[in-house]
Design brief:
Elements: E1 8-11, H1 14-23, E2 27-32, E3 37-43, E4 46-52, E5 64-68, H2 72-87, E6 97-98, E7 102-103, E8 108-114, E9 120-126, H3 140-155, H4 158-169, H5 178-194, H6 198-211, H7 219-231
Parallel strand pairs: 1-4, 5-9
Antiparallel strand pairs: 2-3, 3-4, 6-8, 7-8, 8-9
Helix pairs in contact: 3-4, 3-5, 4-5, 5-6, 5-7
Length: 232
């Protein structure tokens, strides 16, 4: 027996969805507007179906799927380049948007895409055989980065992410390392811009630049800071 699963996702209109996925390098394999809106797209082993419903609200959408890949960095590079070529920028807030490429505490390296229909695609590459959540780090700043990233980049609960990150950034009993500080500031800026707090995001990114820390460990954070700044 041979089976194949194709996720069924939703959108208010299939037109912006089709343009978005074309920018990501997908091909349209089927499209109709009557008797109802329906769209099929495909890129390599990724196939997605979309139903259009004018009553559907992308802002409250909970649909999504996991895309398992063996080269998440390449997909991120191709997807961001395609979006930039098509739309002149890489969308990092609002709908649609593309999230940060980062190592998560449950053994995957991933980024999230929210398409014009509000559907969330988790593009992930396993980087460990163990994909359970790691124990909380003992260091308070590592713990804040760990938990803040989970809330911001996995659960997408921005209010909880703010509480965790602001508590760490306002501690007076101890100080983070320079690398920890940059990670905290960029992550908090990412959350700020997604909450339409552009001025705060600029302030946080300026603080991160002023730290001057230079380490391969900051490659993901530096890239995300550049993407956020380009969209402000």
């Amino acid at each position: 027996m041979t089976e194949k699963v194709i996720p069924r996702l939703m959108a208010r209109s299939i037109e912006p969805v089709s343009a978005f996925y074309l920018a990501l390098g997908f091909e349209i394999t089927f499209k109709q507007t009557a008797p109802y809106q329906f769209l099929s797209v495909k890129r390599g082993g990724i196939e997605l179906n979309f139903y259009g419903d004018r009553k559907f609200d992308p802002l409250t959408a909970t649909h999504g799927c996991l895309v398992d890949t063996d080269d998440v960095d390449l997909l991120y590079e191709l997807f961001t380049a395609g979006l930039h070529d098509a739309f002149g920028t890489v969308p990092v807030h609002g709908i649609p948007r593309i999230g940060a490429l980062t190592d998560m505490s449950y053994g995957v390296r991933q980024f999230l895409i929210v398409d014009p229909g509000g559907n969330t695609l988790q593009i992930a590459q396993p980087i460990s055989d163990d994909q359970r959540h790691r124990p909380l780090p003992k260091d308070p700043f590592e713990r804040a980065i760990h938990t803040g990233s989970l809330y911001a980049d996995a659960k997408q609960d921005l209010d909880l992410a703010v509480k965790v990150l602001d508590r760490a950034l306002h501690r007076t009993d101890s100080e983070p390392t320079e690398i920890q500080l940059v990670k905290l500031l960029v992550l908090r800026a990412d959350v700020a811009v997604r909450r339409s707090e552009q001025d705060l995001a600029r302030e946080l990114l300026a603080r991160a630049r002023a730290v001057g820390a230079d380490s391969p460990e900051l490659d993901d954070a530096r890239r995300r800071a550049t993407e956020i700044e380009a969209g402000l």
